[in-house]
Amino acid sequence: MTGWHALDGFLRTDPRDVGCEQAMEVLDIYVDVVSADGAEAAERRFPGVAAHLRACGPCGEDFAGLLAAVTGTAS
Fold it and tell me: Going along the chain, which residue ranges are E strands?
C-alpha cells in the first residue's frame, strides 16, 4: 500500500474538524448530549467535534468507549 489513500483522506478532511485536542476537551459533554438527546442533537450542537470523530479513528474509539460506559452498552 502506498501513502496515497492516507493523503487522499487528509485532503478530504472536513474543514469543520476541530482536531483531537478540542474534541477531547468537550468529549464528556458531547457524550452526555448523545446519550440524552441523540447523535443528531450532538452533531448540531458540536459540528466540529462530530466531523472530527468521523475522521479520527483513535478519538472515535474514545468516544465509543465513553458512550458505552455512560449508557452501559457495548457497541
Answer: none
